[in-house]
Each structure stands twice: as C-alpha cells, then as structure tokens.
Amino acid sequence: MEKVLMKGNEAIAQAAIHGGCRYFFGYPITPQNEIPEYMSREMPKVGGVFLQAESEVAAINMVYGAAGAGARVMTSSSSPGIALKQEGISYIVGSEVPCVIVNISRGGPGLGGIQPSQADYYQSTRGGGNGDYQFIVFAPANIQEAVDLTAEAFEIADFYRNPVMILGDGMIGQMMEPVVFHETPKRTLEPKTWATTGTKGTRKPNIINSLHLDPADLEKHNQHLQRKYQTMCEKETRVEHYQLDDAEFVFVAYGTSARIVKNAIGDLRARGIKAGLIRPITVWPFPHASFAALTDRVKAVMSVEMSCGQMIDDVRIATAGRFPVGFHGRSGGMILVQQEVVEACETMLKEVQ
Amino acid sequence: MRVFVVTGHYGSGKSEFSVNLALVLRSREQSVALADVDVVNPYFRSREQRALLEHHGIRVIGNTMGVDRGVDIPAVSADVYGPLTDGTTTTVIDAGGDPVGARLLGSFRRLIPLNETEVLCVVNALRPSTRAVDGVIEQIQGIETASGLRISGLVNNTHLLEHTEVEQVLAGDLLCGAVTEQTGIPVRYVAAVKPVIDALPDDVAGERITIGMHLRDAWMLTAKEA
Fold this sequence. Notes:
The complex is a heterodimer. Chain A has two domains: 4-235, Rossmann fold (3-Layer(aba) Sandwich), CATH 3.40.50.970; 240-352, Rossmann fold (3-Layer(aba) Sandwich), CATH 3.40.50. Chain A is 41% helix and 18% strand. Chain A is built from twelve helices and 14 strands. In chain A, α1 (8-18) runs parallel beside α6 (143-160). The mean pLDDT of chain A is 97. The longest helix of chain B is centred in the last third of the chain and has 18 residues, at 166-183. The interface between A and B is medium-sized, with 33 and 28 residues.
C-alpha cells in the first residue's frame, strides 16, 4: 500500500479497522474526537457498529458486553474519560475478555486542559480500578508506530484474553504524519469457545463474570491471572535503545517526549556528552532488562516526562539504586523544550560529579 | 484580489498554507490580516503563529477568549468583520476543515466582498479521501453547500510534510488538472517546501508558494522512523 498523510487519531481508527475491530463504543472528548468521528463514518462501510454511548461508563460496559460475545471491540477517550472507565476495565480483566482501549491523554488533574500530557502513566500502568490487575500498555512515539501497534493490539488482546491499551499523548492524536498500513503480525488464536454467542441448545450457557464469592476460588483465579501477567512481562516487553551502547548519561522517555529527547541527545553529543535513550514502547510491562544491562560507565539516569514525574518510579525500581536518578518534566499541556532537556542533563552531570 | 478564503479537506494543509500566503501577501501589501476561524481543530491552528505573523506586521484575529491555544469552543471573534469590510486590508481567512468547518463561513458570508474575493480549496492528493477526482469534487461541493460560497480556485498542496517529493506534487498537479476539467475551477497556487518548489518543472499549474513549515516544531521533523 502507498504512503498517505494521516492525523494520528484517524490513523489509529483506521488501524483498528485494519486489525479487525468491528465494534466501537465511545463518548466525545478532546483531543481524541477524530477517533469516534472516523468510526462513525467508516464502521458502517465494513459492516461494523459504531455507537456513541451516553457516557464513558456506558461505553466501557458496552465494550465489556461485546468483548464477552467474542467481538473485536475498541473504545477511546482522553484522560478524565479514561478515569471514568476504570471500573469497567477492572471487570473486563477479571472476566478475561479481550478489548482495546485508546487513551489520547491531556493535561490534568480534573478536567485539566486539552493540550498534550503524559500524566496518565499511573492511571495506565497501575490502574484506577480495583484488584490485582495489569494490561499491556503501548506508548507509540509516531503515527506509523501508533498504526502498527493498534492493529496488532487486537491480536494480542485475543491471545491473552486481556485488554490492551494504546497510550498516546494529545500530540500523537493530533499531529499528522505519513503512514503505511502493513500486514498485521498474526498469532495462533484459540477459538473463542468461552464467548456468549448462544448455545443453540447444544451446550451449557457461557457466563462472562468477575464475581468469585469463594475466596479460595478467587485466589486461584488471581494466581491464574498473575501467571498471564508474568508471561506478558517475559514475552511482550518492547523497548527502543537509542545511542545507548556508549552512553554515560541515560534518558528514559516515551511517546512524544522521546522524540524531543532524541533531538536533545543530538545536541549533547555535538558537545561531547555521550547521552543515550531507553524508550519504553510498552510502559507496562516496563523494560527492566534494559536497565539491568546498564554498566558502571553510566553516570546518571534521567526520566523525562510531560508530567510532574510518574514513570520515574519505575525507573527507580528498575535501576535499584545503582545510579543517581533525576527528573525533568513539563506538565499541564506544556510540551518539553529541547534546550531545557539539554540543560537538565548538563546540570545533573555537574551534580553527580 | 483582497480577500482569500482558504478552505479544504481537514489535513490538507490549509492553516500552514494560510500562514505562508499571508506572509507572501505582506511582502506586497501594506495592510494584511489573518483571521483564523477554524473551530474544528484543537491543535495546530494558524493563530498559534501569532508571534511570527505579528512580527511581520500581520494582524491576527482568533477567538473571543483572547487565548490562542488550548480552547476548543466555537467562539470566533467579531473582529473578523473589520478587515473584511474596511475595503483596504488584504485578508486571509483560514476556515476549518471539511464542510463542517466551512459552515461557519456562512455566518458572515454577506460581509465577504465577492468581487474582490478568492475562495480557495486546498487539495492534498496524499490524503486518503482526496486521492481521486471524485473525492476532491465531493469536498468542493460539500464546502460550497455548507458555506454558501463558490470555490474560485484550487491550491495544489500535495505533500507528505518534509518527506514530499517532486513526483508527488506532479501527481497532485494531474489530479487538480482533472478537477479543473470537470468543474472549470482553475489551479491558482501550487505550494511545497523549498527544495520541491525549486525542482518543479515549468509547466506545473499555479503561482508558486514556498512553504515554511511554521506549524510544526523542530522535533516533529525528525520522524524518520515513520
């Protein structure tokens, strides 16, 4: 297929259709509105269903229902809307049904603002819902990557019977870039024998449920879920290393921030500072192995985020006290400034010497 | 022509073209204004280039809130009426994308001096819905119906941002030519980044506008992975 110019949100919506999504339930919120708008126009053309729910809570429960019936289904929202979906997400994980959730995040807390932000790291990787649950969170840094990951997310969700989240800041949703729709990598998937598709009088009804009143039964269910999460950690962690091999200063950044940091690394290297980047493509599972592999050559590690500092917790866990860990961030919808990233690095290097 | 209404498919590059057209017009005219009446896009609006435009002596009209970034309410300032009716200000009106964005033009259509106005439709042949003649004509008809204005000129703005190649602009030239054949609407401008404009053959339709990519920050131009 040839290259076309697409806005992040419409590219994500088209990628979902490309990945087999045929049901979309959502509710409008800036800066992700082009996703439901695109779905409302394009879903009927592929025999799919678009429905604007009465609220985010309704939308996520429609996703729960459609996923339980075995559909490839997606919802999208932005930060405060995702907050409203947390209860449903916990139920979806507990019931082991697959779906894809897109968060094009904006500044918070509360209604916050409509400009890009990465202050939903905790909400995405720790969850706002109840119980011991996890799901894979992809954090694309450009529109092509957003397209590839969104299409593949449906395969992965089906494979694990677990939600997959696409976490893009507002800039990933709103900016335009050239994209190509590639063949999606396929997985060997079991038939959805658990789905509520009607018994036709031939079997016992399937029940989609997250209620386990017997504590021993619930503990066993949790142990089963934990084994799935463990497999995801082992098999699904994705990371990009950028100029890391000889790096003495290691940035950690994802999404839009990673792109600005890459430019800053160019500036720093031009001044003789060997800087590199660990870019988590999955923010959960977090790429711990990349940090374990860092040698004593590294003088300092710095988490750079468009938030007041959330991923830095995972960076501290991953570095386990081996290196000084610094932070640089902007929040509220302010975008990082390349020169400020350069200065933050230089300041920290002086401090650790 | 004194008034330039810039319409087009969303993502066609209207705002970037509008900013660049205003800068070109300012090099010829004393009094130039740019009115951003896009109420659809939350990011990448021409009014965010206020500092650049004002530095060049171009008046910028945004919304009633006096905020250029981060407000997504359909509030267009009544200040837009001033330059339209004063008879002397060369004005670029950056309309929202698609028929839905052009609808707002209908609200001040009567103030637009039609005999000295060019209504432009920006075409990017590399956007999925305007790759073929039918798609472009559908856009034109939709915008005309929503705005109550007749499109008088096309802008061949075929591009993949900084990755644009000459062949792609030529494909856009073919597409626009076919649209002209069917609708009678001529190509007024061809717009591209400097290396591409410099390399265009002589027979490409439209006055050449060199695009400075003002709406994109430096970090966005490094998307080589894409």
